[in-house]
Amino acid sequence: MPFYFRKSVSAGPFRFNFSRGGVGMSVGVKGLRVGTGPRGHYIHAGYGGVYYRSSISSAGQKEQEIVPPSDRPQTTVDGVEMVEIESGSVLQMRAANFAEILNDLNIKASKLPLSRIVAWAGVAFGFVLLAVNPVSAIATWIVMIPAWIAARWLDSYRRKTVLFYELESDAAKAYERLTEAFDLLIGCAGKWHIRSGGTVRDLTTWKRNAGATHIVDKKPTTLDFSLPLTVASNITPPCAHVGDQVLYFLPDVVLVIHGKEIGAIDYNDLKLHWQESNFIEEGSVPADAKIVGQTWKHPNKSGGPDRRYRDNWQIPICRYEALHLSSASGLNELLEFSRTTVCAPLASAVRSLATINGPCVVPNRLLPAE
Fold it and tell me: Which pTM does this prediction carry?
């Protein structure tokens, strides 16, 4: 995905404009806007090519409670004790240079959407009227539609934090390398999130699992470029879905979102480890996977087929690459890709962002206090 900075960001009735002189904000509708910027306050009005412009002579934040991670019990799958690979509470992930913005993001994420309130109230009131006056009930539901649209419009800025980024040349190049490396991961035909894994410890289980020494519980996952619902920004960052959590790779931090809880990890705290691994692929083989061997559904000790089983067919062994993301603040996630040599460029870009001198300008939180 091409990496570029947008010059303006909209959130509901607010529009934020970025220029060399600074950041400006305006509010209004087409034909009439009131705004403020580096040169002061102004009003802008007009339509059809005739325009008029004239100059015009935080809410408190609460700290989020940090909840310690709960110990998930180990499970047993097909006789193998599986160890969960799971991150801790995202509220423990608090990058120091992002703390104020992180508080704001969590407060906005916890707000109940006005559109939901309007929808439920309209539906409930309509059903109450339905038994008395069906015409009034239908009229209520019709009126509810524009009210719901207006509430969604208000939610689009009431529940969003706007972030503007401006990077120096070295940092911009490092972040561009990160987006290019992410494109390599997205291009893999197979992408999985591994939730748990376990070691095969007896011969019977080994035979049942096609001679595998380890088994894993994994599911296909999504990697793309997107923003969280609570953020509007002049960039669209790489995004990785890791089970119940979603990682957003912003220029200065990695946002970690779990439901309505949001954490942030500094790149200095983010650790990436990767290695190639052989996987016995009983499903469909990804188009870009390298097959390095074959095994049997039920092998014997020598590696050949166990003749005691009628339904015993050959299964390909594929060479995949696993990527482990971790941090001292509690991140612990494992991804797997159908191609090899795709994780090193991402790790290199992360190291560059972590070590470069002054890699990022801490973004401004631009929404007005409510």
Answer: 0.73
Rounded to 10 degrees, what is the CA torsion of 154, 155, 157, 160?
170
The span from the CA of 230 to the CA of 252, in Å, is: 17
| Cβ proximity of 5 and 15 under 8 Å | no
Answer positive or negative: Cα dihedral of 114, 120, 121, 123: positive
Q: Give the residue carrying structure tokens 């947008």.
A: 6
User: Per residue in 240-282, pLDDT tens?
Assistant: 999 899 999 999 899 999 998 999 999 999 999 999 989 888 8
Place of tokens 């990682």: 247
Give, rounded to a whole angstrom, the gap between the first and last alpha carbons of the chain. Answer: 35
For residue 283, how many other CB atoms are within 10 A of its CB? 8
DSSP annotation string for 95-143: -GGGHHHHHHHHHHHHSPPHHHHHHHHHHHHHHHHHTT-HHHHHHHHHH
- pLDDT of 28 over the 70 cut: no
Q: Within 13 Å and on the Cβ side, how many CA atoms surround 180?
A: 10
β-strand 231-233 against 161-164: which pairing, if any?
parallel
Residue type present at position 11: A
Give the tokens for residue 201: 């410890």
Predicted pLDDT of residue 280:
87
pLDDT > 60? residue 317: yes
State the angle between helix axes of 134-158 and 114-130 in degrees (0 to 180), rounded to the nearest 10: 170
* Tokens, residue 190: 């197979």
Residue 248: strand pairing partners: 239, 255
Query: Residue written as tokens 């008029």?
Result: 52
Q: Which of 236, 210, 209, 245 has the alpha carbon at shortest distance from 335?
A: 245
Residues 32-61 have a mean pLDDT of 49
pLDDT tier, 21 (very low <50, low <70, confident <90, very high otherwise): low
Asked if 256 and 93 touch (Cβ cutoff 8 Å), the reply is yes
